[in-house]
From TrEMBL:
UniProt name for this protein: Molybdate-anion transporter
Species, as recorded: Chlamydomonas leiostraca
Record keywords, A-Z: Cell membrane, Ion transport, Membrane, Transmembrane, Transmembrane helix, Transport
Alphabetical list of Pfam families matching this protein: MFS_5
Membrane topology: Multi-pass membrane protein
Location of this chain's protein in the cell: Cell membrane
Top-level taxon in the UniProt lineage: Eukaryota
Gene Ontology molecular function, alphabetical: molybdate ion transmembrane transporter activity
Keyword Chloroplast attached: no
Broad class of the protein's primary localization: membrane
């Protein structure tokens, strides 16, 4: 008990220190030269996005450690579980080529909301032990993953420049998004999931219900506070966009390698 208490205090202390270091104004703060009103408006915009992105990432991180365990809990063997995972990755591969262009055409806000909806639906399927219901959930999860890593950042970039903020400030937002979404949320989600499953004994479905809760919160903030924005699709059909992308991949080895690395 003493060891647990010590590590808990140490963890909270280190998290607090990391947050202070990340968010405390410093000499390289790009907002320092802005007028007070513009500075406050930018920080409100930045913090709104960071909160939503953190909720979206937490919804993803909460599920990860328990997907395989849940399938085992329902009595499925390695081969059956493997097919479920392949379906999810395959869904992400197929729809990942479409969601960016569709978000540009129909709206990044709608695409971000769609992520919250489809991933929540995927989590709901985890309450069923039926194999094909779980398969449907994996397909939804693949679509959701593609939306997570395209729609949110696209919305941010377009909205950032539409409000007239400097390009240098965008790097600050991305830096904090990585710290919160890929760092802090990953750790906290793991701890919350462990408490729900192990300490509270709620079973392997509990983290998925928690994911629905945080994504619902994020979705409400998007619905109430995000304006819609679109990509530049004037005169460009989806087919033409895919052709242009194929030309870019084949003509520049760096683009092809970057795409291959990203797919891993």
């Amino acid at each position: 008990m003493i060891a647990i208490s010590f590590y808990s205090v140490l963890f909270v202390s280190l998290v607090a220190m990391a947050i202070v270091v990340e968010f405390l104004p410093n000499k390289s703060d790009n907002t320092a030269g802005m007028q007070q009103g513009n500075q406050q408006a930018f920080k409100a915009f930045r913090n709104n996005y960071l909160f939503v992105y953190s909720m979206a990432m937490a919804g993803d991180w909460l599920q990860g450690p328990y997907i395989y365990a849940l399938y085992e809990h329902y009595g499925y063997k390695v081969g059956d579980i493997g097919r479920l995972f392949i379906a999810g990755f395959g869904s992400s591969m197929v729809f990942g080529t479409l969601v960016g262009a569709l978000a540009d055409k129909y709206g990044r806000k709608k695409a971000s909301l769609l992520y919250m909806v489809t991933y929540s639906m995927s989590c709901m399927t985890k309450h069923s032990g039926d194999y094909w219901t779980l398969m449907f959930g994996r397909l939804l999860g693949g679509v959701s993953t593609s939306l997570l890593f395209s729609a949110f950042e696209s919305w941010l970039v377009a909205e950032h420049f539409s409000r007239g903020y400097a390009e240098a400030l965008l790097g600050d937002v991305f830096s904090k998004a990585v710290f919160l979404g890929a760092g802090l949320m990953a750790i906290l989600s793991g701890l919350v999931g462990n408490v729900l499953v192990e300490d509270m004994g709620l079973g392997p479905v509990a983290p998925f219900d928690a994911a629905i809760a945080v994504m619902t919160i994020g979705g409400c903030v998007i619905w109430l506070s995000w304006p819609e924005n679109y990509g530049d699709s004037s005169g460009h059909s989806l087919a033409n966009q895919f052709k242009a992308a194929a030309v870019a991949i084949m003509s520049d080895q760096k683009v092809a390698l970057l795409g291959a690395m990203q797919s891993l």
